[in-house]
Design goal:
The protein has 706 residues and is mainly α. It has 31 helices and ten strands. Among the domains are: 119 residues, Alpha Horseshoe (Serine Threonine Protein Phosphatase 5, Tetratricopeptide repeat); 229 residues, Serine Threonine Protein Phosphatase 5, Tetratricopeptide repeat, CATH 1.25.40; 144 residues, Glutaredoxin, CATH 3.40.30.10. The strands form three sheets. Strands 1-10-9-4-5-6 form a six-stranded mixed β-sheet, covered by helices on one side. Strands 2-3 form a two-stranded antiparallel sheet. Helix 8 packs parallel to helix 10. The two termini are 55 Å apart.
Length: 706
């Protein structure tokens, strides 16, 4: 039976209490649909425009398919999936809708599940569409007993480009496949696309990735355009910042990253989502803080870290498995900023970092940064103790499969050894050790194309050590190496100006000073010398401080106003949130008394009654049960909190606790603060029962009442 015919039957069974799994919040289409978006899409402004004709019966399907592909081109896979799911809602047998769903997973078991469905239906589409499906199937779906070349999927895509030369999407997706490894070939594909579609979001995006890291200046033209073409997508506004940072264009980089965080915050406000549900937001904040520090804006960088540290959390919810949890990104920001600006006493205030002695990353970071602080504050004994603690982790580090820890641990050890030798008066040995640490640090930095995980710039520290040792020539070499690795690095520019002045090379010193004036002209502590600022960047820049970005979105993430609550209690009295002004509210959407899991959840909540009450929390449980059912139910009426009725799902829809695709209620646990703002939420196919995690978030809300 076709899905379109089956759905009304399924829903009618639900109405009479059929104990089907999906009645408990799970999709009836399969496990793959229990993840991802559950509400229908909307027409997105600022997503970019593409044309990808597909075989369809409903004209609306084509509209949403085009939007989904545009979002794919900006790596916004979560929202792309929403568009493709609506295509499937309109046409359950549409093979390309299934292909789009597979593409929006960027690999993994769900991608295979969806792509298998596309393969089953490929006979109903055109040859061109079949080639898209077959290309991905060749890469993602191995056949039993068949040995395949790794690039077979790409070969099919190449044949698609040759067979249908007017298909710009095929060329764009091929550019995605080849970017970074065949840079000139990729660039030629991109030029071909842009010649016919000058604002194609994928072509601009893939050009940025293609040249990012090594030769960023070749992507500048797309950096200027991509953020305008897809201005409503945080990643599209963010990616030009990568290139600008790599080119040492710190003002433009800050404008890009700041605008991107604002776009993301606006999206979160509009769509009732949270920083922990948006992997790119903390990454973006981290990058922005790094760039602000490069501009000498210490306070702004620290503010970014503290904002992330204060954001709501749920570590298990992150749409990229390799992304750091929010508070880890915040910790990286704070440590890096404290070290770069020498704020050693603040760095030693351990409580702000929530050091976790069970995590190897924390176990290595803490003795390293605290040893740096103790050494800078003149306590070599405590610094040596930190070095010893760090060295003692060597065996554990080598056994652990953690790229960051394994890469940086030996560099940290060597850096500390060099600095301790210098502090002990062993200048030659210390400079040698620090020089080797700087070289190793530089090699690792070249492999990284993200904001630095490592707090120090060891070449800058080496340059300062040479100046202290009265060796300005070698200081200039060290600072020069730093400037090669981090273009227009203000610390290196200042060091080079000082080194060349000590060598009597006034013109060179003045040149570096002029460049520093441009980079640090708006720093919290501007350079202490006069002169004319000079920008030596590969492209023109605006001034970050003078650029207004408020139209892109808010400056800080803030809890959003709770939607309207309008439900009936068992006595048919209307209940609204205003009744609970001054109290926190935990609003639990459950699936009625027929749901065994829901009853287990509510009973578990009842057992924690005292824990809720001492935190000034009122618990409200809401379902589609009728008020009289709530009043008469033996299983429900003994619960120590109010049961509310939402028969028409009006409240569940407003609070995003309803699946628009399958017309199903969802489980939700939502925290609303005493001012009526949503602070945290968990939604999905299963009831939330990690109450200790919830209490941690309530405690954070009570502590931060602003």
């Amino acid at each position: 039976m076709r899905l379109a015919l089956l759905l009304p039957v399924v829903l009618s069974l639900t109405a009479v209490g059929q104990p089907a799994k999906y009645r408990q919040g799970h999709s009836h289409l399969g496990e793959g649909f229990n993840e991802g978006p559950r509400q229908k899409p909307w027409e997105m402004a600022g997503a970019g425009q593409v044309s990808f004709p597909i075989t369809h019966k409903n004209a609306e399907t084509q509209k949403w398919f085009n939007q989904g592909v545009a979002l794919l081109h900006s790596f916004w896979y979560y929202e792309a999936e929403r568009s493709f799911r609506w295509c499937l809602q309109l046409e359950p047998e549409n093979a390309m809708a299934w292909w789009g769903l597979a593409r929006s997973q960027s690999g993994g078991p769900r991608a295979k599940e969806f792509l298998q469905e596309a393969v089953k239906r490929k006979s109903g589409v055109s040859e061109r569409e079949r080639m898209y499906i077959e290309s991905d199937a060749a890469s993602l779906l191995p056949e039993v007993g068949e040995k395949r070349e790794d690039n077979r999927g790409r070969q099919i895509l190449e044949r698609l480009v040759m067979r249908f030369p007017e298909d710009l999407e095929a060329k764009a997706f091929l550019a995605l496949e080849t970017m970074g490894e065949n840079r000139m070939g990729t660039e030629l594909l991109i030029r071909d696309v842009l010649a016919k579609a000058p604002d194609h979001p994928g072509a601009h995006h893939y050009r940025i990735h293609n040249w990012d890291g090594k030769d960023p200046e070749f992507a500048l033209v797309s950096c200027r355009r991509y953020g305008e073409v897809a201005s409503g997508i945080g990643h599209a506004v963010h990616m030009p910042g990568h290139v600008y940072a790599g080119a040492g264009m710190w003002h433009e980089a800050a404008i890009s990253m700041d605008a991107a965080t604002r776009v993301e915050k606006k999206y979160m406000q509009d769509r009732q989502t949270f920083p922990f549900e948006n992997w790119n937001y903390p990454h973006n904040k981290n990058y922005l803080a790094y760039i602000q520090a490069q501009l000498g804006m210490e306070k702004a960088a620290l503010s970014a870290g503290r904002q992330l540290m204060a954001a709501p959390r749920m570590e298990k919810v992150n749409r990229r498995s390799d992304a750091f949890p929010l508070h880890m990104e915040a910790q990286i920001i704070l440590l890096r900023t404290y070290v770069r600006f020498g704020r050693w006493k603040e760095l030693l205030q351990a409580e702000q970092f929530e050091w976790d002695g069970e995590k190897l990353g924390n176990k290595t970071q803490r003795p390293y940064v605290e040893a740096l602080a103790h050494l800078a504050l003149g306590d070599a004994g405590k610094a040596r103790k930190g070095l010893a603690d760090l060295e003692a982790l060597k065996d554990e580090v080598e056994k652990k499969n953690d790229y960051y820890v394994k890469s940086w641990h030996p560099v940290m050890v060597r850096e500390l050894k060099g600095k301790l030798l210098l502090a002990g008066g062993k200048t030659l040995e210390g400079l040698t050790e620090l020089g080797e640490a700087a070289q190793a640090w530089g090699e690792l930095l070249r492999q990284q194309n993200d904001p630095p995980f490592y707090p120090s710039n060891i070449y800058d520290d080496l340059g300062r050590a040479y100046l202290t040792a009265k060796s300005p020539t070698l200081a200039a070499v060290a600072y020069g190496k730093s400037l090669e690795l981090v273009r227009n690095n203000g610390w290196a520019l200042a060091g080079l100006a000082e080194a060349h002045a000590a060598l009597g090379e006034k013109d060179k010193a003045a040149g570096y000073s002029a460049r520093l004036l441009h980079v640090w002209g708006d720093a919290d502590t501007p350079p202490a010398f006069a002169g004319q600022a000079s920008d030596q960047s590969p492209g023109p820049q605006r001034n970050y401080k003078k650029t207004t970005l408020s139209s892109m979105g808010p400056d800080q993430w803030m809890p959003f106003a709770a939607p309207k609550l309008d439900a009936l209690d068992p006595q048919k009295k209307r209940v609204a949130l205003a009744e609970y002004a001054g109290r926190n509210v935990v609003l639990i959407f459950y699936l009625g008394q027929e749901c065994a899991h829901c009853l287990e959840q509510l009973q578990a909540v009842a057992k924690r009654k005292d824990d809720f009450e001492k935190r000034n929390v009122a618990v409200l449980a809401i379902s589609s049960n009728k008020p009289e059912d709530n009043a008469d139910s033996i299983r429900l009426k003994e619960l120590p909190f109010r049961l509310l009725s939402d028969e028409r799902f009006e409240n569940s829809k407003r609070f995003l606790s309803y699946d628009d695709f399958e017309r199903l209620e969802l489980h939700s646990t939502i925290l609303i603060d005493a001012k009526g703002r949503v602070r945290w939420a968990q939604r999905g196919g299963d009831p939330f029962t990690e109450f200790d995690r919830l209490f941690q978030e309530i405690d954070r809300v009570n502590k931060n009442t602003d």
